[in-house]
Amino acid sequence: MKKPTSLPGTPIPRTFSTPTATVRELAVAGAYVFTPRVHRDRRGVFVSPLQEEAFTAAVGRRPAVVQTNHTRSARGVLRGVHFTTAPPGQAKFVHCAHGRARDVVVDLRVGSPTFGRWDTVELDTESFRSVYLPEGVGHAFLALEDDTVMSYLVSTPYRAELEQALHPLDPVLGLPWPSGADFTLSDRDAAAPTLAEARTAGLLPRYEDCLGLVAAAHA
Predict the structure, then answer these.
(1) In which domain, by residue range, is 181 found?
(2) Hey, which of 1, 31, 47, 194 would disulfide with 116, CB 3.0 to 4.6 Å?
(3) How many domains, in total, are found in the chain?
(4) Does residue 77 form part of some domain?
(5) Is the torsion defined by CA of 136, 137, 142, 144 positive or negative?
(6) How far is CA 91 from each of CA 87, 96, 118, rounded to the nearest angstrom?
(7) pLDDT tens figures, 116-139
(8) What SUPFAM superfamilies does its record include (predicted)?
(9) For the chain, what is the HEC assignment?
(10) Residue 155 lies in a domain
(11) pLDDT the model gives residue 219
(12) How confident is the model at residue 218 (pLDDT cuts 50, 70, 90)?
């Protein structure tokens, strides 16, 4: 499935600014890209990827961070599509701390108005953009440079038995990877099911369950 220019029955993606960041809603419902103000001088750079004011204005709740994760990847490494069984689910706030990556979010929530849709953002250390994915949304990225470092702030602890994956080259998803590229995948990702296989097996999260997790976070 391709990224839409518009989706019937869903809001047009919106962009707004706070004093310290610009926020844009992605084509996947509930996912956002944050572009912070970057302070540069002769010493180098100072930037704050996660800012509570901008995050809360977009998402409607304060960021909940219980764990941080860190990956370093060579050029051509393709990680994903990863998601966490919901409940408990896992929301992610992702930015690139070194190098450059093509970051992709995929709506895997059965019943969502944007189910099967994806959007992509290039993450690097020039713009310092960050991507927020709510519970039930899949995540993948392709490292575009050697020593690409990705940092994840996540809402639930890692539990191996809850971690799920879809094949990132599933032709039905049609994710925007460069054609003819030589990707490096983990054994787990290379053997992962397609979207259709995962849905048949009952592995995908339900939209109503994910909304319930969001409501509980607001309570």
Answers:
(1) 65-218
(2) 1
(3) 1
(4) yes
(5) negative
(6) 11, 17, 16
(7) 999 999 999 999 999 999 999 999
(8) RmlC-like cupins
(9) CCCCCCCCCCCCCCEEEECCEEEEECCCCCCEEEEECCEEECCEEECCCCCHHHHHHHHCCCCCCCEEEEEEECCCEEEEEEEECCCCCCCEEEEEEECEEEEEEEECCECCCCCCCEEEEEEECCCCCEEEECCCEEEEEEECCCCEEEEEEECCCCCHHHEEECCCCCCCCCCCCCCCCCCECCHHHHCCCCHHHHHHCCCCCEHHHHHHHHHHHHC
(10) yes
(11) 63
(12) low
Answer whether residue 79 is part of any domain.
Answer: yes
Residue 13: which pLDDT band, with cuts at 50, 70 and 90?
low
Which of the following is catalytic: 70, 98, 152, 218? 152
Among 32, 39, 70, 82, which one carries the catalytic annotation? 82
132 is known as an active-site residue: no
Mean pLDDT of the chain: 92
Supply the pLDDT for residue 9. Answer: 38
